[in-house]
Specification:
Belongs to the metallo-dependent hydrolases superfamily. HutI family. InterPro entries: Amidohydro_3, HutI, Metal-dep_hydrolase_composite, Metal_Hydrolase. Its cofactor is Zn(2+); Fe(3+). Keywords: Cytoplasm, Histidine metabolism, Hydrolase, Iron, Metal-binding, Zinc. The chain is α/β, with parallel strands linked by helices. It folds into two domains: 111 residues, Urease, subunit C, domain 1; 289 residues, Metal-dependent hydrolases (TIM Barrel, Alpha-Beta Barrel). 36% of the residues lie in helices and 20% in strands. The protein contains 16 helices and 18 strands. The strands form four sheets. Strands 8-9-10-11-12-13-14-15 form an eight-stranded parallel sheet. It is globular. The structure holds N-(iminomethyl)-L-glutamic acid.
Length: 421
């Protein structure tokens, strides 16, 4: 074996996530007690006991990191973010805490379209400057891959602008960003009363322009009474798919509106939110093997009930992914640890299921076979935690424990954190 470039040793355990979502989550995490991890050429090259390291695996050039008895796992993957935006909506937060609902605020001219106004007014440079600290906060949680949606541009120029910002951020931050076109996030103000014209703009102009520049991997639609109908979503997602964009859906968040059934029909990669999913919707998702993306921070933030039925979703056999949904309206939070805590407290997942959902489950939802796992040949993305067990993460509610983050074999973040848990 050529010498390793990086070796992590002195761990409580290494979670390699080599199992499948169909088995018990504790087994799927595949814990390796006291193991060490070696990286070469930016990829995992060794996982095992130090005594099993081949001769010459470590030389003077190998960077050796001491995990100080903490556990090690793959970088977190955030499968649902809206982290590119301008402006903020703290006044809406206040209004909701006094009883106004998300929909009432949207109807009064706030909500998504207010962020659209601010985002349209911002330059590409402004948006990069505003988004970079959000990416940095995700990284501080241990996130090494994040999906990012457009959806605050809602015209050709501004949707392209948002996705170009994502492309620029990819070069600036050590977090791999996976772009999703969400031009069907809301009907923009200038199309009020002319929604069919906006659907045509999405299909005839925005989607082709984005595909021409290769700016997105996925196409998403907010399917909701207040946003786009199932029929409109079907047309937009079909047009996107013809251009190579894989469907994802904001499904059954505020009302049960047939979005999960559409996700199944379209063979979508994911159905996200699912607070209101029906039994029939759940069966359809399970039959079509669609990943359920849970974003409980937004359920909390909007003071909504119920939370998505994570326990039933898991028991129906779906793969589950867990995201922060960071955005200015429904989840102003880049806190993966909080999302994991809520997934346990409110969606009914176990700690192991929540950890799977934030790592391997999320990577699979993005089609990333080599992420969210630490098998030989996988991406050299890992997190060294300041606690000995993954169970501590949802339990220590909202507190991040990523002490050192490694991306493609390079240390990209170190934080002074005392050992705990
Ligand atoms: O995923 N539900 C739609 N989209 C976002 C909220 C966006 C906003 O309010 O600005 C979500 O929760």
């Amino acid at each position: 074996m050529d010498a390793l470039e990086l070796l992590v040793r002195n761990t409580s355990e290494v979670l390699t996530l080599e199992g499948s979502h169909r088995e018990r989550a504790e087994t799927a995490l595949t814990p390796r007690a006291g193991a060490c991890v070696g990286i070469r050429h930016g990829r995992i090259a060794f996982v095992g006991q130090e005594s099993e390291l081949p001769p010459n695996a470590v030389n003077l050039q190998t960077q050796v990191l001491d995990a100080e008895g903490g556990f090690v796992g793959p970088g977190f993957v955030d499968p649902h973010t809206h982290l590119v935006f301008a402006g903020e909506r703290s006044a809406e937060f206040d209004l909701r805490n006094q009883g106004a609902t998300y929909l009432e605020i949207a109807k009064a001219g706030g909500g998504i379209v207010s962020t659209v106004r601010a985002t349209r007014a911002a330059s590409e440079d402004d948006l990069v400057r505003l988004a970079l600290p959000r990416v940095q906060r995700l990284l501080a949680q241990g996130v090494t891959v994040a999906e990012v949606k457009s959806g605050y541009g809602l015209d050709v120029e501004n949707e392209l602008k948002m996705l170009r910002v994502v492309r620029r951020l990819r070069a600036l931050a050590p977090v791999e960003l996976v772009p999703t076109l969400l031009c069907a996030h809301a009907v923009p103000e200038e199309y009020r009363g002319r929604r069919e014209d906006y659907v045509r703009l999405c299909i005839d102009e925005i989607l082709p322009a984005v595909a021409r520049e290769g700016l997105a991997r996925f196409c998403d639609v907010f399917v909701e009474d207040s946003a786009f109908t199932v029929d409109e979503a079907r047309r937009i997602l079909t047009a996107g798919r013809a251009l190579g964009l894989v469907p994802r859906l904001h499904a059954d968040q505020l009302t049960a509106c047939g979005a999960s059934e559409l996700a199944a029909e379209m063979g979508a990669a994911t159905a996200d939110h699912l607070e209101q999913v029906t039994d029939a919707g759940l069966r359809a998702l399970a039959d079509a093997n669609v990943t359920a993306v849970l974003v409980p921070t937004s359920t909390l933030f909007l003071r909504m009930r119920p939370y998505a039925p994570g326990r039933r979703i898991r028991d129906a056999g779906l793969n589950i992914a867990l995201g922060t949904n960071v955005n200015p309206g429904s989840a102003m939070s880049e806190n993966t640890a909080l999302a994991m805590g809520l997934a346990c407290l409110e969606n009914g997942l176990t700690a192991a299921e929540a950890y799977w959902a934030a790592t391997r489950g999320a990577a699979l939802s993005l089609g990333l076979q080599r992420n969210g796992r630490l098998a030989v040949g996988d991406a050299g993305d890992l997190v060294m935690f300041s606690c000995a067990s993954y169970r501590h993460l949802p339990y220590h509610l909202g507190v991040g424990h990523a002490r050192t983050v490694v991306k493609s074999g390079r240390v990209v973040l170190r934080q002074e954190l005392n050992s705990c848990g």
